[in-house]
Amino acid sequence: MEKIDKLFNIFKKSGVFDLIDDVYSKEYPKGGRPLIDRHKLIVLIAYAYAFRHTSLRDMETFCKFDLRAINIMDGAIPSHTSVGKFYNEFIVPNRDSLFSKITDAIRDECNIDFNTAFLDGSKFEADANKYQFVWKPTKYHQKLSDKIRIILSKYELSRNVPETGIIPATTIADKITKFNNLISNIDISDKSNKEIFKDYEFLKNCFNKITRI
């Protein structure tokens, strides 16, 4: 239970629960069965993904037979339909904001240094008897950082970004959050806004390339 409590604490500190409350603040009871606790549901979904229960029916079964899932949901068993509805209504449209919030909370809670990059071709054991190689030359990071500077400069987001060298991953993550706020009220269907969304996706792809092992 201690680990599950810690997981709930990370989600609470991240502001994800506040975002859920804000999105569903205008919802009115429609009668019928009581609603599933959405705070618990998003923690369950994250926990289920960690154990490779990625389908909706797998998550429903997970809640029935796994003690950890039962503890997370306090015995409630959401149907695969309920999980899917919440996933499409809340997680999908808010995925970028959720990613930023949860990543920042994990970094703060676990004292993870995002500035660390592996440059020596070291190998690390990911699973039993399975090795994954890490090779990220400095030149590769430098080129990505130069491209990121150009994008950030275009939208006046260059504050606190080093003028030369490799941009720390924490700085890039922070700028992605700010960029997300910048485009949150922009109409994606408007063709004149196509470039800004293209730049946003490019920035996220650069971050994934830098942080991916």
Give an account of the 3D structure.
By secondary structure, the protein is mostly helical. Helices cover 61% and strands 4% of the residues. The chain is built from ten helices and two strands, in the order H-H-H-H-H-H-H-E-E-H-H-H. The protein has a two-stranded antiparallel sheet with strand order 1-2. Helix 4 (56-65) packs across helix 5 (67-73), helix 4 (56-65) crosses helix 6 (80-91) and helix 8 packs antiparallel against helix 10 (194-211). The chain is globular. It starts with a helix and ends with a helix.
Question: What's the short version?
Answer:
With 213 residues, the protein is mainly alpha-helical. The protein has helices at 2-14, 16-23, 38-50, 56-65, 67-73, 80-91, 95-110, 138-154, 169-183, 194-211; strands at residues 123-127, 130-133.
Keywords:
about 60% helix; two-stranded antiparallel ribbon; about 210 residues; mainly alpha
Distance between the termini: 30 Å
Strand order of the largest sheet: 1-2
Please state the overall shape, judged from the principal axes of the Cα atoms: globular
The helix content is 55-70%
- Round the Cα radius of gyration to an integer and report it: 20 Å
**Strand content range:** under 5%
What order do the helices and strands come in, and which of them pair?
Elements: H1 2-14, H2 16-23, H3 38-50, H4 56-65, H5 67-73, H6 80-91, H7 95-110, E1 123-127, E2 130-133, H8 138-154, H9 169-183, H10 194-211
Antiparallel strand pairs: 1-2
